[in-house]
Amino acid sequence: MDKLRRTERIAAIMNILINNPNKIFTLSYFCEKFNTAKSTASEDIEIIKKSMQRFRLGQLETVTGAAGGVRYRHAMHIDDAYEFIKGLCDNLSSETRVLTGGFLYLSDILSMPYITKRMGIIIADMFYGDNPDFVLTMETKGIPVALMTAEALNVPLVIARHSSKVYEGPTVNINYVSGSSGRIETMTLPRRAVKAGQKALIVDDFLKAGGTAKGMLDLMDEFSVSVVGKAFVMSTEEPKQKQISGEISLMTLNNSQSLAGKLIVKPAKWLNK
Questions:
Q1: Complete DSSP assignment for 61-121
Q2: Bigger pLDDT: 61 or 101?
Q3: Of 94, 157, 219, 241, which one's alpha carbon is 20 to 30 angstroms from that of 213?
């Protein structure tokens, strides 16, 4: 490769790092790719790091040790995260979003890549230190946010379903009680989807009583998988006593006046620091 100008190298390095989040690249990798000395590559990385810090573009970390190097992690400053979520809450609090029966319409929000990507980044930033091996969600509305979270963490997405598919091979099935309807439902996951001893991060769209989330916890017990976190796009204020504990959500829904056509959505308290 012809010798590149520093501006060209920096642009290329940033593109590589941002498109491969949470993956460690050694300095030798960049030295070989751009035909440059380690000292020069190190200076390029330092320039990128300072720029990202200044403009809140994420985290660029140096990893020490034999397998060390540099990695980029998607992140949003807490103030930016709060303003983003608050804007969504203002939108979702509109009376036009209240459906018959006191339900909240948010399918359009969960189908917007721009929105779900930022939700995924906020959630992933909370669990980088836990090093989950995969993200688990329940079909179907939680899939977009869970997928974006998995992308930010650079881990697979695993989807539990209500019924098994023949092309997925042998499955593990459990019965659980839906927290919202009180009905007994089935949750299934292919045996090959996860391995014993792995760590899971549960991500879903909505938490009310927590029946589905409890079902996913029980399902992971069947696989001898530990759950390092439980994150939701939205949780309701009522009932206060959920079937799970230790969860985080991006938004909270006051559903006490849902039958009167009024729903109030607010950013989660932990975002307002």
A1: EEE-STT-EEEEE----HHHHHHHHHHHHHHHTSGGGEETTTEE--TTGGG-HHHHHHHHH
A2: 61
A3: 94
CATH number of 6-73: 1.10.10.10
Distance CA 12, CA 21 (A): 15
Helix axes 6-18, 27-34, angle to 10 degrees: 130
CA gap 123, 250 in Å, rounded: 8
* C-alpha dist (Å) from residue 57 to 126, 147, 259: 16, 21, 42
Torsion angle defined by CA atoms of residues 245, 249, 254 and 259, in that order, rounded to the nearest 10 degrees: -90
For residue range 145-173, list pLDDT tens digits in order. 999 999 999 999 999 999 988 888 999 99
Rounded to 5 degrees, what are φ and ψ at 24?
-85, 130
Strands 171-177 and 184-190: antiparallel
List pLDDT tens digits, range 9-44: 999 999 999 999 999 999 999 999 999 999 999 999
To 10 degrees, what angle do helices 27-34 and 38-55 make?
110
- Distance of alpha carbon 151 from alpha carbon 265, whole angstroms: 27
In CATH, the number for domain 78-271 is 3.40.50.2020
Evaluate if residue 226 carries a pLDDT over 60: yes
In which residue are the tokens 């696989």 written? 223
What is the secondary structure of 33-55 as a DSSP string?
HHT--HHHHHHHHHHHHHHHHHH
Question: How much is the mean pLDDT over the chain?
Answer: 93
The reported pTM is 0.94
Token pair in block for residue 140: 């179907």
pLDDT at 257 over 70: no
- Rounded Cα–Cα distance for residues 251 and 262 (Å): 16
Locate the domains of the chain by residue range. Answer: 6-73, 78-271
